[in-house]
Amino acid sequence: MFPARAALYSTESSGAVRSAGGSFAKKEAAQEEMYMHKREAEKLEHLNEELDAKYHPKEGQAAAKDNAKAPKKDE
């Protein structure tokens, strides 16, 4: 899913340095791939954090939710 997006940014006609070719073009391509890889990793980390928060709430939050749902007893 994500690597296809990186290919969209890595066309042969993008950037003057890349179209000139040579070692600078290779360096630019490598830097672009590193940037895209880092962005993908950040997005996945953020998504995992959201899913963990949704499906694995912390104990304190879970206990508070359980107390709120429990019927109150008159003593």
From TrEMBL:
* Bias kind Basic and acidic residues: ranges: 66-75
| Cited InterPro entries | ATPase_inhibitor_mt
GO molecular function per UniProt: ATPase inhibitor activity
Gene3D superfamilies with a match to the protein in the record: Single helix bin (1.20.5.500)
A Pfam family (short name) is IATP
Tell me the compartments it is located in. Answer: Mitochondrion
**Keywords recorded for this protein, A-Z:** Coiled coil, Mitochondrion, Transit peptide
Q: Which domain of life is it from?
A: Eukaryota
Q: What does this protein do?
A: Inhibits the enzyme activity of ATPase.
Q: What family is reported?
A: Belongs to the ATPase inhibitor family.
Question: What protein is this chain from?
Answer: ATPase inhibitor, mitochondrial
Question: Could you name the Gene Ontology cellular component terms for this entry?
Answer: mitochondrion
Q: Where is this region: Disordered?
A: 1-22, 52-75
Tell me if S-adenosyl-L-methionine is a UniProt keyword of this record: no
